[in-house]
Amino acid sequence: MHHQDTHEPEADRRNGDQPRSRRRWWAAGLAGVTGLALTTVGVVAATPAADAAGRTRSTADDHSKRGSGKTDARRDHGKTDDRRDRAGKGKPGGGTPVPCDADALIAAITLANARGGATLDLAKDCTYLLTADLDGAGLPAITTPITINGGKHTIIERAAAADPFRILTVEAGGDLTLNHVTIAGGQTEMFDDGGGILTSSGSTLAINHSVIKRNIGHNGGGVANRGTTTVKHSTVSGNTARASAGGLQNMAGLLTVGHSTITDNTATGLAIGGGIGSINGATTRISQSDITHNYSALAGGGIGDFDATSVVADSTISHNTAANTGGGIFEEGQLTLRRVTLTGNSAPGDGGGGLEIQNVLGGNTATIEDSEITNNSTGRGGGIRNLAATVVLRNTRVAGNQADTGAGVFNNDNSTLTLFSTKIVKNTAVTDGGGILNIAGGTVNLNTATGTIVIKNRPNNCVNVPGCSG
Predict the structure, then answer these.
(1) Backbone phi and psi for residue 114, each to the nearest 5 degrees, phi listed first
(2) β-bridge partners, 429
(3) What is the overall mean pLDDT for the chain?
(4) Which stretches within 34-127 are classed as H helix?
(5) SS3 of 334, please?
(6) Would you put residue 252 in left (φ > 0), alpha (ψ -120 to 50) or beta?
(7) How wide is the angle at C-alpha 197 spanned by C-alphas 195 and 199, nearest 5°?
(8) Count of CA atoms in the C-beta half-sphere (13 A) of 25
């Protein structure tokens, strides 16, 4: 794979972090809400709006029950996160009501920016239908701390017949919190990132108990992040990227995803990350989440990283597809998986049904602990394909994977694979290397004294692996 296909540097520069020009005042909208009294920054700090204790959990939580004895640990860890959320955030409400009218919402955000911030309470059972392009977005750019609280069936959506624009931009210094809001239907012009939301360097975005769906952008169909973005108890679904990262794109920023579902997103370009993509030294942290049924036209159906770091814990990455390589995960960077189930993913074009890790940039590693890599399929490396990187598996099970060669693990030359207390069992290769296929020049350390076993694979257990019976 050529890394220049995945990096998209021209698009990155085209969508730089320089603040956009000051928006129009939208006097007509303001006139329609004369007397609108907005909560200022001081009030926001005293009573920030967010997730109420005892609210019904999101759909993402319904998917958090997983097998292999991991459910209790994940549930306990989730309770800790819930307590932290409730301790740091107040009960929704207490802000300025915004009637069910798009012009009223535009006016409220404009005034909030002018006054240094606000908490806005949107109407429930309301769709704020946006029809006008305000310099690339349907709403004024966020430049101050603003919290937007929704309710049951609160939607902010671009009108289908409107010209292309994203829903929201968060500029440097902006701090946007979305609670119980659906962001839908955003669509950028060609080469503009962030179909639903774009965050700039120096900005902050928190998405809580919300939905990001049916948005279209160049990189980051749902959200393109250059600042600090947190997604909790939310669903990112049905978004499309013309290049990388159908759901969430992390571009040199920090992205944290917890208790969420990333599903049915698509990256149609020759790039990476159907569900989540990270590039340019970005750091992505994922926990207690499901990444499922996403598609990439090139690499990384579920997760795709290039020159990035991803840490995934207590999560399931399943039934994702990459047309070429890395059905579940494609990695050119640093990857850590802890208590992760990587299952049912496919890469019909080339290799790495569950995980493909490459070392084009040098020094790339994958550490996989207490995890399961099962029932993935591809041409080479049904469970894992390692191309010149360093891969360490601890207390992990690789089983039921299928490939032409190296059904469990395909370890290329100049690659290092080290196993501790790991089971490579019941994988099936069409040609050779049912358990592990090691190309001459590669290194495989089984460490059988720790309990590593390679058995019951077909047509054989190992090829060119010292200490492993054929």
Answers:
(1) -65, -30
(2) 403
(3) 85
(4) 41-46, 59-62, 71-88, 102-115
(5) strand
(6) left
(7) 125
(8) 6
Is residue 315 a contact partner of residue 275, using CB atoms and an 8 Å limit?
Answer: no
Buried b (16+ CB within 10 A) or exposed e, 169-199: bbbeebbbbbbbbbbbbbbbeeebbbbbbbb
Specify the fold of 86-94+130-463.
Answer: Pectate Lyase C-like (2.160.20)
Torsion over CA: 136, 140, 144, 146 (sign)? negative
Q: How far apart are CA 284 and CA 342, in angstroms?
A: 18
Sheet strands side by side (includes 216-217):
216-217, 240-241, 266-267, 295-296, 321-322, 346-351, 377-380, 402-405, 428-432
- What average pLDDT does range 379-403 have in this prediction? 98
For residues 147 and 179, is the Cβ–Cβ distance under 8 A?
Answer: yes
Residue 60: predicted pLDDT: 36
Domain ranges of the chain: 86-94+130-463
Task: Check whether 98 has a pLDDT greater than 80.
Answer: yes
pLDDT tens, 233-262? Answer: 999 999 999 999 999 999 999 999 999 999
Between the alpha carbon of residue 192 and those of residues 84, 87, 151, 238, the distances in Å are 36, 37, 30, 18
pLDDT digit string (tens) for 59-77? 333 333 333 333 333 334 4
Q: Provide the whole-model pTM.
A: 0.83
Q: Is the peptide bond before 48 cis (omega within 30 degrees of 0)?
A: no
How far apart are the C-alpha atoms of 332 and 307, rounded to whole Å? 6
Two tokens, residue 64: 């958090």
Q: Which tokens is 160 given?
A: 């289908």
- At residue 92, the pLDDT reads 53
CB neighbours (10 Å) of residue 420?
17
- CA 20 – CA 26 distance, rounded (Å): 17
